[in-house]
Amino acid sequence: MEDQEFREEVRTFLQETLTDDMREAALQGFGVERSIGAAWHRALYERGWIAPGWPVEQGGTGWTLTQQHIFDTELALAGAPMLMPFGLQMVGPVLYTFGSEAQQRQHLPGILDGSVWWCQGYSEPGSGSDLASLKTAAVRDGDDYVVNGQKIWTTNAHKADWIFCLVRTDSAAKPQRGISFLLIDMKSPGIEVRPIVSIDGLHHLNEVYFTDVRVPVGNRIGEENQGWTYAKFLLGHERTSIAGVAGSKRSLAALERLAREEVADGSGARLADDASFGARLHDAAVKLDALESLEARVLAEFARGGTPGDAASLLKILGTQMMQAIELLRVEAAAYYALPFETALIAGQSDTPPGPEFALRAVSDYNFGRAHTIYGGSNEIQRNVIAKAVLGL
Question: Which of 35, 45, 51, 205 has the least C-beta neighbours within 10 A?
Answer without folding.
Answer: 35
